[in-house]
Write a structure and sequence with these properties.
This protein is an alpha+beta fold. It has two domains: 107 residues, no CATH class; 131 residues, no CATH class. Helix content is 23%, strand content 32%. The protein is built from six helices and 13 strands. The protein is elongated.
Length: 261
């Protein structure tokens, strides 16, 4: 799990109602429901664990009102859901160490632009991007994160690589010359390769293993020929003996144009 100091905790986050199984460590966070606030300090979130039963939750003594930031320290993925609307009913799914947020009713992943990101960027790229471009970028992100997560879990590290969607809609991974020295050189080679083929491509991704202030992360630079550019960060941590890798929740921000600059 990523260290919660990867991002600052939320000022004025309010209080939430949490299962004591979460607070004690008896169970990991799994279910999150946002209801209408009961009092001014209540942000409406109800956080439950993977081991909670209906009988357990019916006993008010098994629930505690705590600061939302305290629960985020236990499960940093909750930082992403803070400003989702009342009525949100979510499940935190763990798949081979990878975390994802899904809608409980539909099983559909929560779109990245719905998660808590800086206000100037929240939701803006989907509002101004065609459906095809959204599909291209969503497909690329799924392809590269699946491959990256497998490589990190297997080798504990990740060599830079890329991926693209061509004008026929086919996605393909791309690698630079293995004799290229240094990550920045490999990234430059990948970008140059995509730039030289820009007329035959609709979208590209460049992926690298990076170090943030407090953790390692998979960084994905996404770019579409329509002009949309995003940077997705997925933090991860390794156990002391590096035998187990745990992936944190993704964050998204605006990126820079390279291929179609």
């Amino acid at each position: 799990m990523t260290d919660p100091t990867d991002r600052p905790l939320l000022p004025g986050a309010g209080a939430c109602l949490v299962s004591r199984n979460v607070l004690s460590g008896a169970g990991r966070v799994r279910w999150m429901v946002r209801e209408f606030s009961q009092v001014a300090a209540d942000n409406g979130w109800r956080i439950f664990s993977e081991v909670d039963t209906e009988e357990y939750l019916h006993d008010a003594a098994n629930l505690e009102v705590v600061d939302f930031n305290r629960v985020c320290e236990i499960e940093p993925a909750l930082l992403d859901i803070w400003d989702l609307p009342v009525g949100s009913d979510l499940e935190l799914v763990r798949d081979g160490g990878r975390l994802s947020l899904v809608d409980t009713a539909t099983g559909a992943p929560v779109p990245l632009d719905h998660l808590h990101v800086p206000a100037p960027h929240r939701g803006s790229w989907r509002d101004t991007t065609s459906e095809q471009a959204q599909d291209d970028l969503d497909e690329l992100l799924d392809v590269v994160l699946t491959f990256a997560d497998e490589q990190v879990a297997r080798a504990g590290a990740l060599a830079p690589f890329g991926a693209s969607v061509d004008t026929d809609g086919a996605a393909a991974l791309a690698a630079a010359d293995p004799t290229s020295a240094g990550s920045e050189t490999v990234l430059a080679v990948l970008r140059d390769g995509f730039r030289s083929r820009a007329g035959a491509l609709r979208a590209v991704a460049v992926v690298a293993d990076v170090r943030t202030a407090d953790s390692d992360a998979v960084r994905v630079e996404l770019e579409h020929r329509e002009g949309t550019c995003l940077v997705v960060l997925q933090p991860y941590s390794r156990s002391r003996l590096r035998k187990k890798v745990t992936f944190g929740a993704m964050s998204v921000s605006v990126g820079e144009r390279h291929t179609w600059a």
